[in-house]
Amino acid sequence: MGGDNAPDMVVRGAALSVAKHPDIKILLFGDKEKLSSLIKKESALKGRVELIHTSEIITADMKPSTALRGSKNSSMRLAIEAVKEGRADAVVSAGNTGAYMALSKILLRMLEGIDRPAITSVLPSLVGDVVMLDLGANVECSAENLVQFAIMGEVFARFVLNKKNPSVGLLNVGAEDLKGNSTIREAHEFLKTNKVVPNLYGFVEGDDFAKGTVDVVVTDGFTGNVALKSIEGTVRLVIGHLRKSLKKSWVTRLVSPLFLPILQLLRQRLDPRRHNGAIFLGLNGIAVKSHGGTDAFGFSHAVGVAVDIVNNQVNDRICAELKSSDRLAAAKRSSASG
Amino acid sequence: MGGDNAPDMVVRGAALSVAKHPDIKILLFGDKEKLSSLIKKESALKGRVELIHTSEIITADMKPSTALRGSKNSSMRLAIEAVKEGRADAVVSAGNTGAYMALSKILLRMLEGIDRPAITSVLPSLVGDVVMLDLGANVECSAENLVQFAIMGEVFARFVLNKKNPSVGLLNVGAEDLKGNSTIREAHEFLKTNKVVPNLYGFVEGDDFAKGTVDVVVTDGFTGNVALKSIEGTVRLVIGHLRKSLKKSWVTRLVSPLFLPILQLLRQRLDPRRHNGAIFLGLNGIAVKSHGGTDAFGFSHAVGVAVDIVNNQVNDRICAELKSSDRLAAAKRSSASG
Q1: pLDDT of amino acid A254
Q2: pLDDT band at residue A338, thresholds of 50, 70 and 90?
Q3: pLDDT of residue B190
Q4: Mean pLDDT, rounded, of chain A
Q5: How confident is the model at residue A177 (pLDDT cuts 50, 70, 90)?
Q6: pLDDT computed for residue B334 by the predictor
Q7: Is there a contact between A152 and A133 (Cβ–Cβ < 8 Å)?
Q8: B173 vs A208: CB contact, 8 Å cut-off?
Q9: H-type helices in A194-280, by residue range?
Q10: Looking at CA atoms only, how far is residue B99 from chain A in angstroms?
């Protein structure tokens, strides 16, 4: 029931998802009356969806604390509980991010060896996709949090994006070892000394997202959120200017239909819907957050992200990585020293 | 002598600057032998430039502490001293940012009522220019620092960009009052309660730069630096994709020459050279930092920024504003409570 265009958008997104992934089944949590008529319209959903009725909704403006105390029968909470109880492999929501994160943390709890979840997403760069975390779960992070994010991001890049030996960078204001605040320097020093990730690049800067300098960019949730939104805003700015420029002279107005496919291609490559679906990495269960303002196509991409994580057993891999190597010990030492 | 293409680029930039500003004179600090032959090539500089010889240079990789202790006769230090001693109205350098900031702070000192300088720059948005500070002078900022940045940014927008009643926003991870870390919330509360800036907008997010939601965006130097570089990198990313897309099909290859003026226009609007020149705002003297990698045109823009600040008496205005209103008292109360 969450998101600007819910529940229509979610139901249509579910229909696109089952068409794309022949092996999945959808549990839909929400208002039976509203949903059943929408479901009927989507022939693809026939026999692939189970409807769980609830009339309670966590609204977009609800504080996380309010969502935690009340809303025992909200669609969001019941969907997360389905993952907790093993009735679902993953939960996807376009609803209130703060409430979703708070409920997911309380209900699913953390993976062993991980103290805080990180909102993780994949961004396009000039040379390939870049994993970025944290995008806003933690406005303040300790060095140990950053170390754990590095481990999780590396596993995600390796198993979901199929990158061999993915490189990991820490987002900073300068590439020299001396720059940055003490937290980030401490995290870097720890990662370096303890060889926590096999392919540590070192510090990266804001323009390294676009360059694709590394496969994984680790940062605190405050900086990560600002960087992500700055990037998204700039893409819209440039495309907006491009549209204006096309209308400037009669020559360009005349030939502008020829450029529409180019704009289309550009959009497609940088389309935020094609990168929709942020993972709450570090939880003992898969929870994926869709943009609230997305459409059915974007929502189905978020479902696809959940499917990829489940199929590639990302959480098991993170745990295995932490256990098999010195990483868990390293992370724990970091935890003790932090 | 600073910057990737110095001293050629700087001398040519000086030539462009004197042509653009008929009332200015240039003091050039650096190696006489190298500079005099370059100066001779630029007829525009005839009678408009004074050469002050020095053989010492602060290199790009020199630590600020090293630059502070040694380099008494470096071109950078001597140029800043010329401002301190009133022989120049402003200094512009494309050299080592850390050293330049450290030397400027030590030599010029702070304006009364301001505790820390902020690297300040102007970015393009969809609807007009946006003033942004701090872009990297202070990786950690107190609430009082942010309050002072708000005052300085507001004055800059009013007198240099000629904005009437400029709006001021604090960069945050969410627009709601509850979000963000304690420092930013405290700064916001203080600005609101004490009406420190006339037109306080509240919190803004990363995508508000591009939208042009406010005239002035206030942030700490860590977040500001990451956001700025993310924006710059994304502009290059989108234009890069655009170029690639133009070569994709024979239709677009055929008509792509028609598209070049549009790319040109887009570049021009978003050209980082046209926004080159970051001001160390808050110092008792005008120091402008040019991008190290810029060209003569970009450098002349940085000189233009210095000219604008001098002509509009920005520092006097900041002091006057602090004194005439309750702002100085407000800033001091902030200082005491911080």
Answers
A1: 72
A2: very low
A3: 92
A4: 89
A5: low
A6: 58
A7: yes
A8: no
A9: 208-211, 221-246, 250-270
A10: 13
What mean pLDDT comes out for the span B255-269?
69
Tokens of B332: 């001091």
Q: Could you tell me if B223 lies within 8 Å of chain A, comparing CB atoms?
A: yes
Chain A residue with CA closest to B204: the answer is A226
ipTM of the complex: 0.86
Q: List pLDDT tens digits, range A40-49.
A: 999 999 999 9
- The model's pLDDT over B155-190, given as tens digits with 9 standing for 90+, comes to 999 999 999 999 999 999 875 555 778 899 999 999
Query: Residue A279 forms beta bridges with which residues?
Result: A120, A288
d(CA A77, CA A62): 14
Interface test with B, best of A101, A184, A230, A241 (most B CBs within 10 A): A230
Say if strands B168-171 and B200-204 run parallel, antiparallel, or are unpaired.
parallel
Residue B62 to chain A, least CA–CA distance (Å): 11
Position of tokens 């496919």? A261
Q: Using CB atoms, which residue from A63, A219, A231 is nearest to B234?
A: A231
Decide the pairing of beta strands B216-218 and A118-124.
unpaired
Chain A segment 234-263 residues within 8 A of B by beta carbon are: 234-242, 245-246, 248-249, 251-252, 255, 258-259, 261-262
CB A318 within 8 A of CB A152: yes
Q: Are B230 and A222 inside 8 Å of each other by CB?
A: no
- In the numeric block, which tokens belong to residue B331? 């800033």
B106–chain A Cβ distance below 8 A for any pair = no
B209 closest CB neighbour out of A126, A219, A230: A230
- How far lies A149's CA from each of A313, B62, B223, in Å? 17, 32, 19
As a whole number of angstroms, the distance between CA A96 and CA A77 comes to 12
Test A171 with B231 for CB contact under 8 angstroms: no
Mean pLDDT on B198-210: 93
Q: Are A226 and B227 within 8 A, CB to CB? A: yes
Angle between helices B314-324 and B143-159 (to 10 degrees): 120
For A71, list phi and psi in degrees, rounded to 5. 55, 40
Q: Which residues in chain A have their CB less than 8 angstroms from residue B246's CB?
A: 262
Of the candidates B203, B208, B207, the one whose C-alpha atom is nearest the C-alpha of residue B178 is B203
Distances (CA, A) of A315 to A20, A285, A306: 23, 8, 12
Residue range B281-295, pLDDT digits in tens: 999 999 999 999 899
Please judge whether A255 and B251 are an interchain contact, meaning their C-beta atoms are less than 8 angstroms apart: no
Span B52-102, pLDDT tens digits:
999 899 998 888 888 888 888 999 999 999 999 999 999 999 999 989 999
What are the structure tokens assigned to A210, written together? 């676009």
Q: Are B250 and B263 in contact (CB under 8 A)?
A: no
Q: What is the pLDDT of residue A219?
A: 97
Residue of A nearest to B135 (CA): A173
Pick from B94, B119, B120: which is nearest to B9 by CA?
B94
Q: Determine whether the interchain pair A252/B261 forms a contact, defined as Cβ–Cβ distance below 8 Å.
A: yes
- pTM for this prediction: 0.88
> In angstroms, how far is the first alpha carbon of chain A from the final one?
40
A210 and chain B: CB distance < 8 Å anywhere? yes
